[in-house]
User: What shape does this take?
Amino acid sequence: MTTGAAGATTSSLAPAAVVVAGAGPVGLMLASELRLAGIDVLVVEQRPTGTTGESRAPGLNARTMEILDQRGMGAAIRAQGKPLSAVMFAGIPMDPHEHDPDWPDGWILPQYETERILAARAIELGADIQWSTAVTGLVQDERGVEVQLRTANGTDVVRGQYLVGCDGGHSAVRKASGIDFPGLAPETWWVVGDLDLTDPPSESQPFGFNDRVGRYQLSRTEPGWFRLNMMRPRPPEDPTQPVTLDEVRATMIEGIGSDHGLRSARWMSRWSDGFRHATSYRNGRVLLAGDAAHTHTPIGGQGLNIGIQDAVNLGWKLAAVLDGHAPDELLDTYHEERWPVAARVLTQSMGQTELVKPGRRREAIRDIFEDLIAVPETTMSVSAELSGLGVRYPLGDTHALLGRRMPNLAVTTAAGATDVFTLQHGARPVVLTFTPERRAAVDAALQGWAAQVDHVAVEYRPDERDASWHVPVFGDVAPFDAVLVRPDGHVAWIAPMSSGLDATALLTAIAHRPMTAPGAGVVEVHPATGRWQICFTTPRGEQRAELDLRRTATGWTGTYNGAPVTGLDVRDSALTFTSRVREPFPAKVTWTGTIDGATITGTAKTSFMTLPFAATKTA
Ligand SMILES: Cc1cc2nc3c(=O)[nH]c(=O)nc-3n(C[C@H](O)[C@H](O)[C@H](O)COP(=O)(O)OP(=O)(O)OC[C@H]3O[C@@H](n4cnc5c(N)ncnc54)[C@H](O)[C@@H]3O)c2cc1C
Assistant: This one.
């Protein structure tokens, strides 16, 4: 970095549309997603080069494997490692295949191998990775972010239109952006490592349980290497100091009475039962993903998985906003969709972590849980949650698949036999139509949208065609003959078999703003201009607000407590708009109501809660 004559800083790095901090699995996945959409991306990573070399997250869950298949990376992952067919709850295995033979498998692979495959793909797609480059600070304005860097040669800056912090649990981006990271402080510590043992334990018992350390793992993961995961009977004197071989040895001897001839370790670390969750995944042009946004214990094996899933939720949204075809508010849906997923994972992980700790009382609860999760319905619902297959975003409820992941149906296109995931390799939204009639209607509706969305006519022959279609994980769903699959694989719009085509809804789902199908028009049938007094009751009591709606020559405008609302749509007797509120917590709120004379009644919905409201006309 140099300072020019006028005091302006100049950078040795070209500005990028998106700067990603951190080349861990999440940053690398995000970089690939952005490159697939043609966005120029700069990844800055504080490590000198390559992967971490740490095996820490060996479990890729079923949804992560589906996502990697959606991007054509599944085969590279499956070339090594082994299938993960069981789903673990606090170390208790469940087998969803017993009840659904089509249940997709996860995969076991050391994290450094996953990182190697993700890095190769990101680089192949043209991502620029600057190694030995750490983010130290940031300054954002309404056009972008100036990212301050520490490099091998000193300091530098780079400008991006957006900055995404994928820089792990101690995220410098999160701290510099001022986003809070509240949670629970650690109470208990575990040591973890890949160990070389001269006197290894029996391989038939990879997990053990005792009164001193609770449930522990000592299992052979690769020829010559054993993975240890064991609670320290006492907290470390200084948890900030690196783990030593002596600490591992002492923990093993105190915990299980033997160090099994511990000779060396190629990786050692420590984790705790601290839990933290960013209050927001976005502050203006700065966003967070992966461990930078949520940290929890590895019990249940979720961290890397939800991080990768964050990346595929965010990548296409950034690309659509940068491309200009989607409004900025689309980026708010990243927090709205992903925050609740991590909140649930934190709860799950917290519960599971308690169950692996030592103690007779916990053992009793654990026994009860073993019985409960053996009940088929519980096995399936807990497995759906822990394997990431059960996520449903709030994209509507008129069909069982809306908001859920699109299953990988085997289909035939004009180019031959294929499957849905293969059609998603380009990370573009895709409309699939299943009948010639639907194909023609969708073609007509999508005129002018070819740059934003693919339309593929497919043939699908399920075993039972008439009453319902059986799809893995969800079971029977109502047949459909057109579906919009978002780049992250979630269903954003669906047309039940032989229904009329709701082109307005399809276009709205593609454009992420209210759209009008060609020729439909917007009708005004009520006199809802003027000021309304909104009243709703929150956990903190009754709240009042001012809503001002005006009809202009070009459409409707509105303010909520003086600030402009977005997405305002008034037609027939229905009203929707989006606003930001500060109380009882800062949130984006979607208001949906019905106007009847001088009153509006409806619901105000945030990602946290839905509240009924009523509004009375005041002027
Ligand atoms: C023992 C253990 C077992 C685990 N098992 C599982 C499992 O089975 N399944 C699972 O899903 N998860 C598991 N996890 C969690 C998983 O490892 C993490 O959730 C995952 O690595 C998060 O990826 P990330 O890219 O968000 O962050 P990280 O992997 O932490 O990557 C962050 C990157 O950012 C870089 N960085 C940091 N600061 C800066 C900066 N200021 N500037 C530039 N770069 C920076 C770092 O060098 C790093 O490369 C486990 C974790 C542990 C410790």
Observations:
- The chain has four domains: 2-58+110-183+276-357, 189-272, 410-511, 530-617.
- The longest strand covers residues 154-165.
